[in-house]
Amino acid sequence: MDLLFTKYIKAMISYEDIYRVETYEYPKDALREALLNAVAQKDYTGPYPIQISVYENKIMIWNYGKLPENWTVEDLLDKHSSQPRNPDIATTFFRSGYVESWGRGMDKMRNLCLEAKIPLPQLSCKGNDFWTVFRKDIYNKEDLSKLGLSDRQIKAVLYVKEHSKITNKEYQEVNGIGKSVTVDELRNLVDKEILVRIGETGRGTYYELPIKNDR
CA-CA distance, 89 to 36, in Å (whole number)? Predict the structure, then answer.
């Protein structure tokens, strides 16, 4: 965790009064939960270390091991019983205070990602390959600028991040522009998959971030 958050994961700096606040690209506790889960669920009969791959827009955690018999990834995302592959490791983590309870880790990761307004972690298991993938929030001025968005579009996307959605009228008000320009710029944001359009026509139409589809 120290290595990840000092060398690989950036923090956005802000201030509350005179206090410096660091907001990381990924919620610390969610990554911590995923790493603890990888250690406790790893199949140690295989000579393969847990692997962490850090990319510009995501972190991938891999461990060797299958799901319990007749389980699917969807079962992990629903309420389920705790069946750690390595009970002694799981018990040690619990008694040491590293985890509050087993069987709630996935819920905790999902809730922390929702709170941080980043996409939900993606889980997959094929054979002995178990992956947990975190994708970072690109909805900040620096990353949106890299996508070639205009200042007006960036302002609108950040508005959606704060208020959950934006209408055509709100886009006009936020940027002080007319309807025709607004239509073109919103269509461009949809084409680039930055925003998702909800509704076909009329006053009920609005735009939201695609990460809502993961909730």
Answer: 10
For residue 59, pLDDT over 90 is answered with yes
**In this structure, what DSSP letter does residue 147 have?**
T
Q: Cβ atoms within 10 A of the Cβ of 117, count?
A: 13
CA of 179: how far to CAs of 12, 75, 150, in Å?
Answer: 34, 46, 17
Q: Which residues contact 46 (CB under 8 A, 6 or more apart)?
A: 64, 65, 128
Residues 169-200 pLDDT 10s: 999 999 999 999 999 999 999 998 899 999 87
Convert the pLDDT of each residue in 89-126 to its tens digit.
988 998 998 887 666 778 888 889 888 878 888 888 88
Paired residues of 51 in beta bridges: 62
| Inter-residue contact 113 to 27 (CB < 8 Å) | yes
* 154/160 Cα distance (integer angstroms): 10
129-135/196-198 β-pairing: unpaired
pTM of the model: 0.68
Domains and CATH numbers, the chain: 2-135 (3.30.565.60), 141-214 (1.10.10.10)
- CA 80/CA 43 separation, integer angstroms: 20
